[in-house]
Amino acid sequence: MxxxxxxxxxxLEPREVEDHRVRPVCPNCHFIxxxxxxxxVGVIATRGDDARVVLVRRGENPGRGLWGLPAGFMEADETxxxxxxxxxxxxxxLEVDVKELLGVWSYFHAxxxxxxxxxxxxxxxxxxxxxxxxxxTEVKFCASAEIPFEELAxxxxxxxxxxxxxxxxxxxEESSVGD
Length: 179
Hints:
15% helix; alpha+beta
């Protein structure tokens, strides 16, 4: 939550604005602070004909010690595809070719009382060596039947992996998506 105006530095006040929502507003310069949800982006990555998906053991909360997909928050200067590639490389040491949009999920983080959006792509590993990086402590490949659903950190990752399992054998090869 913001306490001071990012434009002029004056203390913010909660006020009802034109959309009838109470938002932080600067009484000095009238700047309205919109608290928009973050966008997280990730991949369900496999290597060629190998039907195993890469998972990372989380090294940070939320979900420290649990498994998840390589994913993270999008930066203001990148596309979702660029973010997917960057996050996979940072967390796994693997470079990927983004193939297709698998889905978009919304979530609510009860502890932080915030919502967010997760964009996940199907991707093919093109280079690199699987090694834990940035906020992961371990990288592993799992066949569809070996995915540890009970040890996954996020419901959105569980839903995405179930969707991937349903499509894995029947989906035709897609071309790469652009930037």
